[in-house]
Write a structure and sequence with these properties.
Blueprint lengths: L50 H38 L18 H32 L4 H18 L13
Helix pairs in contact: 1-2, 1-3
Length: about 170
């Protein structure tokens, strides 16, 4: 249908004042770039509007990524504490009434193990969520942001990874 003959000049849109505010949009690059113009990091509200916001954002990314390593160290320490607590729990003597799966384990150890497994499952979920959020930050494909993630991971490992091998088993978490 051809609408080129229709005249819309009398519809009164001319007096609408949209102000002189430019409406900056978040730019989404799918290729590596150093450009920070209209860079948004994960959320529309985390919009880089200048040098100051870029510097503070990069420092926040470094801190967030280092915090991930602190979380991992905290989880390792919790697991070590649970293992030590289970090893210190008294064991029951082997009798005919003990089942094959429960030989030598006390009911206290079983309760510790169940509660610890729930806590570890929650911590595992938090750790994975955190890792995927870092991955999304990295996927801005901005060089400054990518280097900040790497710097934060390195600093986090330096400060919190003393009990961890430097070799990673998985790429994203």
């Amino acid at each position: 249908m051809d609408h080129s003959h229709m005249d819309h000049s009398d519809m009164g849109h001319g007096d609408m004042d949209h102000g002189n505010m430019p409406m900056p949009m978040c730019s989404m690059n799918m290729l590596f770039t150093w450009d920070t113009t209209n860079l948004c990091i994960v959320f529309r509200q985390w919009h880089i509007r200048g040098t100051t916001s870029l510097v503070f954002s990069l420092l926040a990314i470094i801190a967030l990524t280092a915090g991930y390593e602190a979380l991992r160290e905290g989880i390792r320490r919790y697991e070590s504490w649970v293992t030590a607590k289970q090893d210190a729990a008294p064991s029951e003597p082997n009798t005919e009434s003990t089942t094959l799966l429960g030989v030598g384990r006390s009911s206290q150890t079983g309760a510790i193990g169940r509660q610890a497994q729930i806590i570890k499952a929650v911590l595992y979920g938090v750790q994975n969520f955190y890792a995927f959020m870092i991955m999304l930050i990295f996927m801005t494909y901005n060089g400054f942001v990518m280097f900040s993630v790497a710097i934060g991971a390195g600093l986090g490992y330096y400060f919190f990874g003393s009990h961890t091998k430097a070799v990673k088993d998985t790429a994203c978490h």
